[in-house]
Amino acid sequence: MLEHLGEELTLRFPIGGMEIAFNLVVMAVAVAVAGGLVLLSLWIRRGLNPDPDAPLSRRAALVAAAIDFFRDQLLGGVSPQLGERLLPLVATLFLYVLLCNWIGILPIPYIVSPTQDLNVALGLALLVYGSTHYYGVRTKGVRRHVAGYFEPFPFLMPLNIIGDFGRTLSHGFRLFGNILGGALLTAVTPVVVLRIADLIPVVGGALGWAARVPLVLGLNLVFGLFFGGIQALVFALLAAAYIQVTAD
Amino acid sequence: MELEAVVQAAKYLAAGICMGIGAIGAALGEGMIGAHALDAMARQPEMANTLLRTMVIADAIAETTGIYSLVVAIVLLFVV
Q1: What is the pLDDT of residues A82-99, one digit of tens each?
Q2: Which chain B residue has the Cα nearest residue A182?
Q3: Could you say which residues from 41 to 70 on chain B have a Cβ atom under 8 Å away from some Cβ of chain A?
Q4: Is the predicted ipTM greater than 0.85, yes or no?
């Protein structure tokens, strides 16, 4: 029942004594999610009326509600001027991570959440790390941004840089660990329950199979939808917080 | 053969200990955060939205060490 757990469709390239592995499924799903988001936004934009006096259509109301949610929940702790500039980046991160987390609950073999691959999670964290520098330089200028690393004392500069990297590492590992842990629990728990139920004489087997359906649905609900949503929110919130700390 | 069995057993034991002890700190921390956030929300219900957002961030940060031990346990089980 768990044969497919460690199995991956990978391409391997030997490069100078090392081997670089590409997980094709994760790459395909990650690109597909990004493409789906682009198509969704194009579809929503087509229904919008540029005339501000026109009656509010359903799509326009959806967009307004979503932007209100992003402003209040994701950027509530950021100063208004910076918040407006951060809105596209943070909202995109939130939607992308959310869809990546949720696509894993589809009961299709080999389709997994791209975020349960460390490369995707750490790549997104590195993107946030890069944008902290971008927004830091944009708001403060190069001199004051670099000078920020020598505060409060010049000799603490190495510690500031190490802290930056540790922050980025834990940002990526948090998403990766949560989603992978949830996916493993969702895969393993029904098997364990089935084995335990087999120990009960006569009715055990039937009982195990009967418990399987609500168990799988519940696990997917909690670890897939609920924790996936919370983790996407946390990822975007922390991205906004990190950028704000550097840009202030 | 004999040695391999011992290594297998040690692997499972190590993963269990790692996750079990590693979860204690994260669980205690998240419990404290939740308790204090509830305290503050009961005192000032109009602040509940801001408090909830801050609580989720603090939870995520307190959880980090637990996630580290989860990653180590997964590496022990599936990679080592």
Answers
A1: 888 899 999 999 999 999
A2: B70
A3: 49-50, 53-54, 56-57, 59-60, 63-64, 67-68, 70
A4: no
Burial classification of residue A4, based on how many CB atoms lie within 10 Å of its CB (0-12 exposed, 13-18 middle, 19 or more buried)? exposed
Q: How many domains does chain B have?
A: 1
pLDDT, one tens digit per residue, over A197-218 is 888 887 777 887 888 888 889 9
- Determine the Cα–Cα distance for residues B33 and B36; give it in Å rounded to an integer: 5
Could you tell me if B35 lies within 8 Å of chain A, comparing CB atoms?
no
Could you tell me if B79 lies within 8 Å of chain A, comparing CB atoms?
Answer: no
Domain carrying residue B58? 2-79
The distance from CA B8 to its chain's CA centroid, rounded to whole angstroms, is 25
User: Taking the CB of residue A10, how many other CB atoms lie within 10 A of it?
Assistant: 13
Q: What is the pTM of this model?
A: 0.85
CA distance to partner chain B, nearest, from residue A81 (Å): 19
B55: CATH = 1.20.20.10
